[in-house]
Write a structure and sequence with these properties.
Keywords: Signal. InterPro entries: Uncharacterised_CreA. It holds the Pfam family CreA. It comes from Roseibium suaedae. The chain has 177 residues and is of the alpha+beta class. It folds into two domains: 30 residues; 144 residues, no CATH class. The chain contains two helices and eight strands, in the order αβββαβββββ. It has a four-stranded antiparallel sheet, with no helix packed on it.
Length: 177
């Protein structure tokens, strides 16, 4: 009886520790992209088709910049029940959609968005950097696995331009040292 109570306390402590550790990750990943549309690419009988899905997401640190990305989504039974490992192909396009305001300093290659692409091991990431010489924000999307990464990637750049009568900010002023 004592051993069972001790095991329960260890399990409860582990669950609380996991909640404390994972809560900031969940909060940072709370922003979900907006689905723009899906287009079927391979027809599947009685199960969902393979599709290309196009999403939009606003940069949470850089107001006035939005990115659109297209990812393949597997259909069939494994895609239907959510256990398919998605391929690493992804395209990315980012644009200035309003006056640019940078809310906080950021590091080169800082993660802007992350999405799980398999049940356990694969994730897609969009990271942000700054080409200070040209005053251009640089966005890179890539997929990685726990053990091995993927060379498949896409890059998009956003030159920071004046908007109306507002002078452009300098992204280099917001890089962490």
């Amino acid at each position: 009886m004592f051993q069972m109570a001790h095991s329960f306390r260890k399990l409860t402590a582990a669950a609380l520790t996991a909640a404390v550790v994972l809560a900031p990750l969940a909060a940072s990943a709370a922003e979900e992209p907006d689905l723009i549309f899906k287009k079927s690419t391979v027809w599947k009988f009685l199960t969902p088709d393979h599709k290309l899905a196009t999403y939009a997401i606003d940069d949470p640190v850089v107001e006035g910049v939005s990115c659109h990305f297209t990812v393949p989504e597997k259909g069939g039974i494994s895609g239907w029940i959510g256990v398919a490992e998605e391929v690493s192909d992804v395209s990315l396009s980012c644009r200035q959609v309003g006056p640019v305001t940078i809310r906080s300093k950021f590091e080169q290659g800082e993660e802007m968005f992350r999405q799980r692409r398999s049940l356990f091991f694969k994730k897609m990431q969009i990271v942000r950097g700054c080409d200070a010489k040209r005053n251009v924000l640089v966005y890179l999307v890539y997929s990685d696995k726990l053990v091995e990464g993927s060379p498949k990637n896409s890059t998009s750049t956003v030159p920071i331009m004046p908007w109306g009568d507002q002078a452009p900010v300098k992204c280099g002023d917001y890089l962490k040292d």
